[in-house]
Amino acid sequence: MSSHLVDECAAPPKNCFRLVVLGTARVGKTAIVSRFLFNQYDDQYTPTIEDFHRKMYRIRGEVYRLDILDTSGVHPFPAMRRLSFLTGDLFILVYSVDNYESYMEVMRLREQILESKASCKTRTAAPPMIIAGNKADRPESEREVLYDEVAKWVSTVKKCAFLETSAKKNGNINELFQTLFELAKLPPEMSPSLHRRVSIGDQAWEAAKKGISFYPRGKQDDNPLGVVSPHARRPSLRSDLIEAEAKAEQEQRRAEKPSIPKISSALSPYRSQYRSCTWMSLLRQAFQGLVRPAGGQVCRLQVQHRCYNAPAAGHVQVDMNSDTGVATVRLNRPPVNSLNLDVLTELSIALEKLETDRSCRAMVLASAVPGIFSAGLDIMEMYKSTPERCVAFWRALQDAWLNLYGSRLITMAAIEGHSPAGGCLLAMSCDYRVMADGKFQIGLNETRLGIVAPFWFTDVMLCTIGHRETEKALQLGAMYSAQQALSIGLVDKVVPADQVMSTVQTELKSWLQIPDAARVITKTSMRKQVLDRLSSQKEKDAQFFADFILRESVQKSLGAYIASLQKRKS
Ligand SMILES: CCCCC/C=C\C/C=C\C=C\CC(=O)SCCNC(=O)CCNC(=O)[C@H](O)C(C)(C)COP(=O)(O)OP(=O)(O)OC[C@H]1O[C@@H](n2cnc3c(N)ncnc32)[C@H](O)[C@@H]1OP(=O)(O)O
């Protein structure tokens, strides 16, 4: 490696770290990051959705990479938030000294991070964290959080430090990062005052990436330097996972755990349990701590790299047309797009990303599998499962639905095939539905499986087709043809299968003419009550689902239904 090369790719995994900055809105998270990276302060407040920065260092001949995730203070995106907990190596939790509630949120955040890390069996439990009591420049009369109270609390928790800061006056910002880096055993030179900041233009950066020195010819400079990448883009979920797994492997090696089973043999039993699961999805579940490999041991990760390098699972394909601002999201889990934990997690994250993409105004939900919109929830997730997995699965469904039903985007369902149960829920949660004429069916058929549609499925159907039709539809577990669905208002338009997409595009044109703000306010006010009903009792609902679905009588019905599906086929 050239000693002058500061290349994003040149940092070995052991030298790559992700710092996540969390806290409620308006506590100064972005201001702290901005001080650290650019020594700048902006008095204007612009709410952050999620900003990603990358700083590269060359320290004592080695290249280091620090990724910074500056998160949203309001958190309408739980999947992204959970991912930030899981992928963070070190954390800054920020509160404002003039806002006691923001301090309470910091205490909650710490618990949530530890919970997430603990649920991920391959990671160590307590990552290094620092608590920043920001806006310490505020007059004492406005102070709501006492220094001593926080210091006392922090003294009782592991791997945690505390400082009061002022991003505005640049008070203790350098010390904040220095203390955190020390706690995390990172090179002290990563602190702002201990390296030379290199301001680098795009061209110079490109030169550096090609290995061309950006120092004057012949001049040697071994002093530590740091450069903010001008092209930083948040890595994809897949890259996040690859990196997190690589890290876990390192931690594992460091801990010198003996006799680690090979992942291929360790996970084999699960391939029959989770039909048509890809290695990628198994790995993801293992990573989430939901699948315990054989013998309950942690898997070897070298093999996982090979698996990740195989073609991406891609259960949810997103195609963003930046000219029109319309994204097409296609479910892609043959044979029937049944929704398992993996698909739901991918869907949630895809929706959250579109939600934060300012250029995106509309989304078409469709299928990449011919003849199927979605067969609803993966019945195998509910059959002979464990309480923990049931809860995780249900949470993923809740998140995906909250993201879809509560989306600011214009959402349209292109139903080019069968759409039972959970598939019908997804379609009903869009603003408009176009269905293919012919043999395909749609409806909430839960009672036919011996299960009961949850209250929020019912709420959405009530809002779509009214009380009387819902009552009939739900009791009978009715499945409707496209024409029948049209007659009760379950879909908005029925066209020949090959015209579904073009009809959606035509309909979208009139929706796109409406100013977004007015449309979004109207949509929100219409949907808020239904969204709030689930949001206020998510955990209770997840627990209730697990208890209900694992009842012996319900399991028996599900078993019989699965057998009937297989019999019908033969
Ligand atoms: C007051 C108390 C409230 C408590 C609330 C608690 C609980 C409520 C819980 C749950 C709510 C659940 C909602 C759901 O979504 S349940 C899922 C319901 N889905 C279905 O019933 C669909 C069943 N499938 C079909 O009807 C057909 O497959 C379909 C018409 C979709 C397609 O037919 P096609 O002929 O093309 O394909 P098949 O040969 O039938 O299927 C291929 C293959 O796929 C398997 N499969 C089908 N659907 C599912 C599924 N949903 N999950 C898992 N696997 C599925 C099928 O068995 C075939 O497998 P194989 O034989 O090839 O191995």
Automatic annotation (TrEMBL):
GO terms for biological process: fatty acid metabolic process; signal transduction. It holds the Pfam family Ras. GO terms for molecular function: delta(3)-delta(2)-enoyl-CoA isomerase activity; G-protein beta-subunit binding; GTP binding; GTPase activity. It catalyses: (3Z)-hexenoyl-CoA = (2E)-hexenoyl-CoA; (3Z)-dodecenoyl-CoA = (2E)-dodecenoyl-CoA; (2E)-tetradecenoyl-CoA = (3Z)-tetradecenoyl-CoA; (3Z)-octenoyl-CoA = (2E)-octenoyl-CoA. Transmembrane segments: none annotated. It is a lipid-anchor. GO terms for cellular component: mitochondrial matrix; plasma membrane. Keywords: Acetylation, Cell membrane, Fatty acid metabolism, GTP-binding, Isomerase, Lipid metabolism, Lipoprotein, Membrane, Methylation, Mitochondrion, Nucleotide-binding, Prenylation, Transit peptide. It is found in: Cell membrane; Mitochondrion matrix. Pathway: Lipid metabolism; fatty acid beta-oxidation. Homotrimer. Belongs to the small GTPase superfamily. RasD family. Key enzyme of fatty acid beta-oxidation. Able to isomerize both 3-cis (3Z) and 3-trans (3E) double bonds into the 2-trans (2E) form in a range of enoyl-CoA species, with a preference for (3Z)-enoyl-CoAs over (3E)-enoyl-CoAs. The catalytic efficiency of this enzyme is not affected by the fatty acyl chain length. NCBIfam families: small_GTP (TIGR00231). This is Enoyl-CoA delta isomerase 1, mitochondrial.
